[in-house]
């Protein structure tokens, strides 16, 4: 199947093979071709160029993209879209003055979602999660990572991971799976963290590995959740099963989680709302991608990741939604890109790089996704007619997406 786009106003994020992530000042550049064409063949980007050099090509279908921008689809490297029900009541509690931490301390938060999920059948959980996946795909997400972590028992964690696996089998976009058993202490282990960590390490990890249910391992390294010591213990144990760390750190406090992540060669460290200069130093020279989640900051009213400090230190940065029922009930990458510009002072070029090529790196996909490069997957966004790519983050709250393609097929 050959699909041809002609008269593209601007073909965005055009990169040579071998560009796998961008750091510091490199993120200011967003290479493009104006008045371009692009051919997809068998799901891949086969060729592209300027209209003035257009060779005669016979395609099965031709799209006139006049006035429109064609770009790689968004990559959402951090989500929790497999969950049951919602936590609307906590939203109201926060409006009435309670903080996220206060709600967690009085028994709400993650264990609340866990109770709901434990009582939900695998089929029902799949149906609820599938709706969210379809919703975000329509908004331009063309590759996604999904975490467990709302099960908090062996059976319920495995149920979540099986749902993620089924989504991967039933949908064409890449779906990466992360085991986040160490998301919070279940109510039964409230005073027995050691016991819960033992359960994760001795029972959950071997089963996750046996069924090959996850590629990554995660932990919420934060005051009131898991310590740096717990993080070191879990990540060392997970290494034996070849699970690569991608961890929640520095959301509310800087307690040394970034150093631990870098030492364990984490692929990414995510959240980073609270960063001190030593945390930034730790990331220098590492292969670990910092990931910011600005819609979480918006929803909880907490600080935004200090993107300028991170980029000005020469580091890379990726953006993701964190779509989950507690801190970010929203999976709109377009909004994330806008917030990064508005609240984190990233330029449109930096934000788009962070949500495409760097986001691909954060889930091990930057060889195959995240840029307009010959041979990469034809996972694309075709915008409506818009004046320029900067109009995307500028017109926050609107998506301006005409159509989304996964492996060259319109969804
Ligand atoms: N911070 C930890 N985990 C999720 C929130 C979980 C929840 O509140 O349900 C996050 O990334 O924000
Ligand atoms: Zn998260």
Automatic annotation (TrEMBL):
Residues 69-409 form the Amidohydrolase-related domain. Keywords: Cytoplasm, Histidine metabolism, Hydrolase, Iron, Metal-binding, Zinc. Pfam families: Amidohydro_1. It catalyses: 4-imidazolone-5-propanoate + H2O = N-formimidoyl-L-glutamate. Fe(3+) binds at residues 78, 80, 248, 322. It comes from the Bacteria. Catalyzes the hydrolytic cleavage of the carbon-nitrogen bond in imidazolone-5-propanoate to yield N-formimidoyl-L-glutamate. It is the third step in the universal histidine degradation pathway. This is Imidazolonepropionase. It comes from Salinimicrobium marinum. The gene is hutI.
């Amino acid at each position: 199947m050959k699909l041809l786009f002609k008269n593209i106003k601007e073909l965005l994020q055009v990169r040579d093979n071998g560009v796998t992530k961008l750091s510091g000042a490199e993120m200011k550049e967003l290479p493009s071709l104006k008045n371009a064409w692009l051919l997809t063949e068998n799901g891949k980007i086969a060729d592209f160029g300027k209209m003035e050099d257009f060779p005669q090509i016979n395609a099965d279908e031709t799209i006139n993209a006049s006035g429109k921008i064609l770009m790689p689809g968004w990559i959402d490297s951090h989500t929790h879209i497999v969950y049951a029900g919602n936590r609307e009541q906590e939203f109201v509690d926060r409006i009435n003055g309670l903080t996220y931490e206060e709600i967690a301390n009085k028994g709400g938060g993650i264990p609340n979602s866990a109770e709901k999920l434990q009582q939900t059948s695998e089929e029902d959980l799949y149906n609820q999660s599938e709706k969210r996946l379809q919703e975000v795909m329509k908004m331009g997400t063309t590759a996604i990572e999904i975490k467990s972590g709302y099960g908090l028992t062996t059976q319920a964690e495995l149920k979540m991971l099986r749902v993620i696996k089924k989504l991967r089998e039933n949908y064409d976009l890449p779906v990466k799976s992360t085991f986040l058993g160490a998301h919070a202490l279940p109510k039964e282990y409230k005073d027995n963290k050691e016991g819960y960590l033992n359960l994760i390490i001795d029972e959950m990890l071997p089963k996750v590995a046996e069924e090959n249910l996850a590629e990554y391992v995660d932990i919420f390294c934060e005051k009131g959740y898991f310590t740096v010591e717990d993080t070191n213990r879990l990540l060392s144990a997970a290494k034996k099963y070849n699970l690569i760390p991608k961890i929640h750190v520095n959301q509310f406090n800087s307690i040394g989680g970034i150093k631990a992540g870098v030492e364990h060669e984490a692929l990414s460290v995510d959240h980073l709302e609270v960063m001190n200069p030593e945390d930034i130093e730790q990331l220098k020279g590492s292969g670990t991608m910092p990931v910011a989640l600005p819609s979480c900051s918006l929803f909880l009213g907490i600080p935004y990741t200090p993107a300028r400090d991170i980029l000005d230190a020469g580091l890379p940065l990726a953006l993701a939604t964190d779509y989950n029922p507690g801190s970010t009930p929203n999976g709109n990458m377009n909004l994330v890109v806008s917030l990064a510009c508005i609240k984190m002072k990233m330029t449109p070029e930096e934000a788009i790089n962070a949500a495409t090529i760097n986001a691909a790196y954060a889930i091990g996909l930057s060889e195959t996704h995240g840029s307009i490069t010959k041979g990469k997957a034809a996972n694309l966004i075709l915008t409506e007619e818009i004046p320029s790519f900067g109009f995307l983050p500028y017109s926050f709250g609107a998506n301006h997406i005409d159509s989304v393609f996964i492996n060259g097929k319109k969804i």
